[in-house]
From TrEMBL, chain A:
Domain of life: Bacteria
Hydrolase in keyword set: no
Gene source species: Litchfieldella qijiaojingensis
Principal localisation: membrane
Membrane topology (UniProt): Multi-pass membrane protein
Keywords: Cell membrane, Membrane, Transmembrane, Transmembrane helix, Transport
Protein name stated in the entry: Spermidine/putrescine ABC transporter permease
Upper taxonomic lineage: Bacteria, Pseudomonadati, Pseudomonadota, Gammaproteobacteria, Oceanospirillales
Membrane-crossing segments per the record: 12-33, 59-84, 96-116, 136-156, 192-213, 240-261
ABC transmembrane type-1 domain span: 63-259
InterPro entries given in the database record: Bact_Polyamine_Transport, MetI-like, MetI-like_sf
Pfam families: BPD_transp_1
Family: Belongs to the binding-protein-dependent transport system permease family. CysTW subfamily.
UniProt-annotated location(s): Cell membrane
From TrEMBL, chain B:
Pfam families listed in its UniProt record: BPD_transp_1 (PF00528)
PANTHER family, per the entry: INNER MEMBRANE ABC TRANSPORTER PERMEASE PROTEIN YDCU-RELATED, INNER MEMBRANE ABC TRANSPORTER PERMEASE PROTEIN YDCU-RELATED-RELATED
UniProt record similarity statement: Belongs to the binding-protein-dependent transport system permease family. CysTW subfamily.
UniProt keyword annotations, A-Z: Cell membrane, Membrane, Transmembrane, Transmembrane helix, Transport
Domain ABC transmembrane type-1: 86-292
UniProt name for this protein: Spermidine/putrescine ABC transporter permease
Taxonomic placement: Bacteria, Pseudomonadati, Pseudomonadota, Gammaproteobacteria, Oceanospirillales
Length: 280, 307
């Protein structure tokens, strides 16, 4: 009896917490359809803020900047991070403490310290050499720096999860290291590469502080634009862009759910195939 | 492999190629992080020990002037402003971390009691809000706490705030924003701890007629401690350096260390002062990490606290 009461109380608490987590997002979505420019009263449904959005060139260019930044930085981070992840696995019996420290540094450094270090450094380099003018270029560099560790750790943990005899088998099958990389390693770690790419992409889109400090006058991303709009005074247009971004996240959430339900069967299949191959 | 063990020259050649392999795979990334993060941070630390020139930019000679300024010693004598900001950051971190624990603990437990097929969905529901941009989430709270909204009206009718004042900017709004922002970071590690809980220990405690409270304290709580520690690291350290939430929800009287630092690089620039603040933040971060590691190791669950 007592146990059931506890369970009921927990269930109520769960729904309350969910309400707490989703309330701010729901408010943004609802008020993006508000007919008047009021943050307190909902007066009727209209799409005027969305129409206004389409005509706003600043927003469109901010969107384009966000996309260019996220895709370019994720691709660079994927290549570099994947190499480190493999290196860490292959040489895991060596003492690589310095490498671990280096890889964890971008993760543990507070955002604000990260952003400001990069900003001051870029500004001084630019003053001395004329290179690295604040803009998309510097933002891409900064984003790649915080994405590399995540890619490396995902790829590394995928390699650790593999049966070591697979590597011996691949050595017997393919003569050159390049062939091995192309026909054995890349296909085996493909799921890890895909999730690492999406994580990098999300990290880039999610980031505000580091982008804010490394951006130039022409390279505002969506979050930076929204930040500026909030500082200038709240406009319902912000609700409309924010709603579109929330929609994108919702789609990503559904996709990741579908993916997580499919993955177990696939990985067991892989594993089975792997053990068969490794048997002589 | 066997040959290289027998013939020394082959082995040394293998070692050389191994080293080259290490260099080839690890060097690009290590170089990238070194050039674009280690060097910049080192430069920032150097800036803290320089003099403030015109336009707030750093200049020679070296001095500790910026640290004196950070401690509150200005041209007009000592003022407590910066000290308040520092204490407020510590207080906000402490309060929000404690609140996050209080909310996340039952939630994580509840998820493990639900059917297995629902658990991934429930975890996803907790995490998804944190996938949206921090600025947007905080903007959502601004909408909710503004004057004239139901929450503000409620607070007004109870007499918590003056009429026609919203619930933000205020320290309360900052705490709320921090709790909201970091809740998922605590739920996930706690869930992992609860999921592999050894129920035999709980059973044993009950068989020995332990009261529910004692059973919890001796059989359940110690087992979840590694998750709790990991969560505390993930919440407290970024909370201490938070910039966006106090900037939007706190106003001038809700400023935290992150805002103090950031302000020195925009508007009223003073790079050395900002750099000194950044050093303070780094010291706090590393003390926090180190302390958690020590505590984690002593509890024997050191492996769980990855960072």
């Amino acid at each position: 009896m007592r146990k059931r009461n506890l369970q009921r109380g927990l269930s109520a608490f769960w729904w309350l917490t969910l309400a707490f987590l989703y309330l701010p997002l729901v408010v943004v979505v609802v008020f993006s359809f508000n007919a008047t420019n009021s943050a307190a009263h909902f007066t009727g449904v209209s799409l005027r803020w969305y129409r206004r959005l389409l005509g706003n060139e600043e927003i469109l260019s901010a969107f384009a900047n966000s996309m260019i930044l996220a895709i370019t930085s994720s691709v660079i981070a994927l290549v570099i991070g994947c190499l480190i992840g493999y290196g860490m696995y292959r040489h895991r019996h060596r003492k690589l403490g310095w490498l671990i420290v280096l890889i964890y540094l971008p993760i543990v450094l507070p955002d604000i310290v990260f952003g400001i270090s990069e900003m001051t450094f870029f500004v001084q380099i630019h003053r001395l050499t004329g290179l690295l003018q604040p803009g998309l270029e510097t933002m891409i560099i900064a984003h790649v720096t915080f994405q590399i560790p995540f890619v490396a750790l995902i790829v590394y943990s995928r390699f650790v999860g593999l049966d070591p005899s697979l590597f011996e088998a691949a050595k017997d099958l393919y003569a050159s290291p390049w062939q091995r990389a192309l026909h054995f390693m890349l296909p085996t770690i493909k799921p890890a590469l895909i999730s690492a790419f999406f994580l990098s992409f999300t990290l880039s889109i999610d980031d505000f502080v580091i982008s804010f400090f490394t951006a130039g006058p022409e390279s505002a991303t969506l979050p930076i634009y929204i930040w500026g709009a909030i500082r200038k005074g709240v406009s319902p247009e912000i609700n409309a862009i924010a709603t579109l971004m929330i929609g994108a996240v919702a789609i990503a959430a559904v996709l990741s759910l579908l993916f997580s339900y499919r993955r177990p069967t696939r990985s067991t299949a892989n594993h089975r195939r792997g053990t068969e191959e490794s048997e002589p | 492999m066997a040959y290289s063990d027998v013939i020394p020259s082959l082995r040394s050649r293998a070692l050389v190629s191994e080293s080259r392999h290490l260099l080839f795979t690890v060097a690009p990334g290590a170089f990238w992080i070194f050039v674009f993060l280690v060097l910049p941070s080192a430069y920032l630390m150097g800036v803290a020990f320089m003099t403030t020139g015109p336009y707030g930019l750093p200049e020679m000679p070296l001095s500790v002037e910026s640290f004196r300024r950070l401690a509150g010693f200005g041209f007009l004598g000592w003022s407590p402003g910066n000290l308040y900001t520092l204490l407020r950051s510590l207080w906000q971190t402490l309060v929000s971390t404690a609140l996050v624990v209080v909310i996340a603990y039952p939630i994580a437990y509840y998820i493990t009691t639900c059917r297995e097929k629902w658990r991934p969905i429930m975890l996803l529901l907790v995490v998804v809000p944190s996938w949206t941009n921090q600025v947007i989430r905080t903007f959502g709270w601004m909408n909710l706490l503004a004057p004239g909204t139901p929450l503000a009206n409620l607070a007004e009718s109870v007499g918590l705030i003056d009429p026609n004042m919203g619930l933000y900017p205020s320290n309360f709004a900052v705490t709320l924003g921090l709790v909201y922002n970091f809740l998922p970071f605590m739920v996930l590690p706690l869930y992992a701890a609860f999921e592999k809980l050894d129920t035999a220990q709980v059973q044993a405690a009950q068989d020995l007629y332990a009261s529910p409270v004692r059973a919890f304290w001796h059989a359940v709580f110690p087992q979840t401690l590694p998750g709790l520690l990991a969560g505390t690291v993930l919440v407290a350290i970024p909370a201490f350096g938070m910039y966006v939430i106090p900037e939007l929800l706190g106003g001038g009287k809700g400023m935290m260390l992150g805002n103090l630092v950031a302000n020195q690089f925009a508007g009223s620039a003073n790079w050395p002062l900002g750099a000194a603040g950044a050093i303070l933040m780094l010291i706090a971060t590393f003390i926090g990490l180190f302390a958690m590691r020590r505590v984690g190791k002593r509890l024997g669950g050191g492996e769980e606290v990855v960072i």
